């Protein structure tokens, strides 16, 4: 039996760290933590196991990289939105709502999957709790930037954030038109002010929708 092909596949390497990480992320989203295993990923990518070990020490290192990517993308999106220019608190809330709506900026499936993983790992739970604290701090800071008292800013930040996490945890399915129609109401409830017509127009343009 000729095993030279298998040997070449096992001992050769090619690909990239990004390729392995993207495959791990997709496997995680599709099949959960147990789906993130080296050999199945190698088979799917048609790469050798040696390729994997060129970029990652072991499966634990891959999983840690997956968590780091989640933190950078999803938590980073909140920080960037809260730091973005806004002429009013209403516009600041609209910046945050873009994060909630645009899955290229914030990946709700990844957030949901990581939260599920946290129930299996104290270490991951600690990172989720730290991420939640960081996101809440950013939203509180947004409100305080526009003059809200610390207690008010805290309650409003929790209202904004926990509403969104509730959407993710309940895996709410709404069509885009329905969500967009609710945006002016959400803004008023979250901050106590109405978004102006120009602010809403800029939001709709960012979302690529017409009204």
What would you say about this model in short?
With 211 residues, the chain is an all-alpha fold. Helices cover 75% and strands 0% of the residues. The chain folds into two domains: 56 residues, Arc Repressor Mutant, subunit A (Orthogonal Bundle); 137 residues.
Overall description:
75% of the residues lie in helices and 0% in strands. It is mainly α and 211 residues long. The chain has two domains: 1-56, Arc Repressor Mutant, subunit A; 71-207. Helix 2 packs across helix 3 and helix 5 (59-83) packs antiparallel against helix 6 (89-101). The longest helix has 25 residues, at 59-83. The chain is elongated. The termini are far apart.
